[in-house]
Amino acid sequence: MHISKPIEPEISDHYFDLGVNRRATAADVKKAFHMLALRHHPDKKAPGKTIDAVEFRQVREAFEVLRNSTTRSEYDTRYNEVQEEWNEYRSNLAEYVLQEERERLEANNERVRILEEERRLAEAREREAKEEARAKVERTARQEKERLAEERSRQAAERAQKELEKVAEERLRQWEEDQGAKLKQHCEQLQRQAEKKNMMEEMMMMMEEDIMIMEEDMLIMEEDMMSMEEDMMIMEKEKNAMEENMMIMEEDMMMNKKMMMNEKRKMMEKKKMMEKKKMIEKKKMERKKKAEKRGRGQGKRRANK
């Protein structure tokens, strides 16, 4: 259940504002006023501090009421009710402050939970991206290797087929030529061997070009892998930055929790003091009532005599 901020009672607790009890003499009241006036007077504030004089006005008002016996007597007639209202207000204010701190802590916990969930999702996405990228690179490399192997096999087969066809045609023409022209045949044979040699050299050059193309493709793939590794390093840095932010927030939460515990301890101590003071005042009132009752009984006995 949400607790609204309590409203201060209309009548001030002058004894509390001066830090004295109801048995304080006029000298005690004056002494307390001078001490608090020196502490809260606007002229005594350090340079740069905000001067609102609220505490000084409270002390001044309390002194004006309690210094005069008539105004003090009138104030004392209703002080029990005033004190009760202020005790209730301070107790409610302490609960309100604790509630505000609790809600702020819960909000911080929710922000931490959301950041932790975002970090977990980011790590999961990072792992998936790494696995997908690795699988993609391996699949691309395997497909490219298979394609290049098939292409080389096909080109080699085509070149071999063409070579066989040429050899067969040359042999057929050689068979059809005049068997008697051996010199011419010898020259033609030498020429064919030279052509065959040139053809083989061309085939070797083509194979070397294919190898160079394949090496260039492998270099491109290595560059892609390096680029992906750089992207992964950037993602790792972002992850580290997020974890550092989480650690800073956790430290802030611990500090806020310690501050809240200190404030709570102070409020509990103050509450115990007020309750103790209240019990003392209650006992005083009971003793006063008993004394008055005894006085009335003695008066009746004297009247009967």
Automatic annotation (TrEMBL):
It comes from the Eukaryota. Residues 13-79 form the J domain. Residues 285-305 have a biased composition (Basic residues). Residues 126-157, 267-305 are annotated as: Disordered. SMART domains: DnaJ (SM00271). GO terms for biological process: protein refolding. InterPro entries: DnaJ_domain, DnaJ_domain_CS, J_dom_sf. GO terms for cellular component: cytoplasm. GO terms for molecular function: unfolded protein binding. Pfam families: DnaJ (PF00226). Residues 267-284 have a biased composition (Basic and acidic residues). This is J domain-containing protein.
